[in-house]
Amino acid sequence: MRAEGQGTGPGPGPRPVRLANAGLTTKDLVFFVVAAAAPLTVMAGVVPLAIRTGGESAAYGYIVPGAILLLFAAGFTAMSPMIKNAGAFYSYIARGLGRPFGIGSALVALVAYNAMAVCLLAGFAYYTANTFSSLFGVDVPWQLIAVAGTAAVAFLGYSKVTLGARVLGIALGLELLVLVIYEVFVLVKGGASGPAVSVFAPGLITHDGFGALLVLTAGGFIGFEATALYAEEARDPARTIPRATYIAIGFLAVFYTFSVWCVFVAYGSDGALAFAGGDDVANMTFASITHYVGAWASDFGQILLCTSAFAAALAFHNAASRYFFALGRQGVLPTAFGRIHRRSGAPVGGTVVQTAVNALVLGLAMVLGADPYLVVFLWSAAPGVLGILALEALTALAVVCFFARNLRGHSPWRVLVAPAIAAVGLVALVWLSISQLDLLTAAGPAVNWALLLPLPVLFLVGVVMALRIRGRDRARYESLGTEDVEG
């Protein structure tokens, strides 16, 4: 493995290196974000549970988080030209709320993104094992598939980032294609009983289960902020990152909402509620695809469910490896984490560490005989989703604090009011997630608290680390989270 280390320059701090400018375009970044959201996984695994939890109000389940995140994006993209490194949330929070909060947030981000990578690799293994069994009559151990998935993600993470973008683009295009075909067939055939416009009645937002279903649906947008993680690798980050962020959030909000509505059209409102409330809720989407399009589409969709989970795992692996890189480059974590590959320019140090995390957690699950879905998938998703939501809330507040000192030519609405409203909405989503965490984990209070505890603990550890650095080396402290790396 040929890699370039950071080395040390004059003075006490590490000499900066940068990720190679791979010329990532708006399209590439949108692929990374939407693939991380895993639309087919959401439609097959989350939407039926959202309908079961919130009834007809599920049609608003993606409108509300989408609106909150579009407000968030207003300030986030205004600040993005000032963040020219791979630190993303870490850098935003460090500049807006101070370096101790930035380092604390970075450690939370490491837990969250690594948890999501593990979660989705477990999902990939589970879905693929089931697909081999149901479609081909072949029993393949999920453990073997998990090992293969981990190796494939590591290879793509080690390669030039544009290769991963192409893989994600193909996987995403196919999963969207099968959903669009299904939705067209539903609408052309008229559904079960007409257009189901009742699901958009404004009063439904007051449904008793609406708050609970937001805990499920908010996770459908997790990963959109990854656009900022590729600041060093984008062709024109000042233009590409804002465009990709708005397009990704807007597309997900519209596509998810349209897709939920199509499910209600397909079954009829009463039929959808009845099916979602039954024992076969997990098969709701594919049963409808079989009915309206045919068994071939359902079978193809189940195969694409596997590639959807793999693509999302790759996207979160990339995000986690870039956090390791950013912290290693600045000497917060071992400098070996900040190594880059000489030829591909990829964060090879971060890739190795993230792959080791995948191998360790999945290996432990195999040794203990843990269920890949009920334990590894669900339990890993909880700190992942909650950690990223909390980081988004802190980032929104950081944007407000950053621009409160100087609007930098922006309107108060864009950089103060919109992100402040988003911060309130995101805090509400965090509170809902904590109070109803059992919806995500299907576990008891002891497990839920054990899953949550690392987040605040590591945040405090990061704060202490930053303060210790300030006490030992003021110049190094001043560089934390503010290091801009030009091309």
Automatic annotation (TrEMBL):
Localisation per UniProt entry: Cell membrane
One CC-aspect GO term: plasma membrane
Assigned keywords, A-Z: Cell membrane, Membrane, Transmembrane, Transmembrane helix
GO molecular function: transmembrane transporter activity
Top-rank taxon, per record: Bacteria
Pfam families in UniProt: AA_permease_2
InterPro entries: AA/rel_permease1, APC_superfamily
Annotated TM spans: 29-51, 57-80, 101-128, 140-158, 170-190, 210-231, 243-267, 300-325, 346-370, 376-403, 415-434, 446-467
Record membrane topology: Multi-pass membrane protein
Name of the protein this chain belongs to: Amino acid transporter
